């Protein structure tokens, strides 16, 4: 299960990278949908430690950016 979740996480990250580099709107939307779909599969297949990391890291980054915005 760990291998499957890491592969789907890699596919989701690759799709997110490709969608940020593409100018075509339709292909960009398709890559973002692929990213969301594979992220959900990753959350379904991953062990709980990986799930915790996948949820906690973006939360910490967003809280950190909110705290630095208040300082400026």
SSE diagram, text form:
Elements: H1 2-21, H2 25-45, H3 48-71
Gyration radius, in Å: 15 Å
Task: Tell me the span between the first and last alpha carbons.
Answer: 44 Å
SS field, number of helical segments: 3
What general outline do the C-alpha atoms trace? flat
Structural commentary:
This protein is mainly alpha-helical and 72 residues long. It has three helices and no strands. It has helices at 2-21, 25-45, 48-71. Helix 1 runs antiparallel to helix 2. The longest helix has 24 residues, at 48-71. It is flat.
Give a concise summary.
The protein is mostly helical and 72 residues long. It has helices spanning 2-21, 25-45, 48-71. The longest helix is centred in the C-terminal third of the chain and has 24 residues, at 48-71.
Question: What structural keywords apply?
Answer:
single chain; flat; 72 residues; mainly alpha
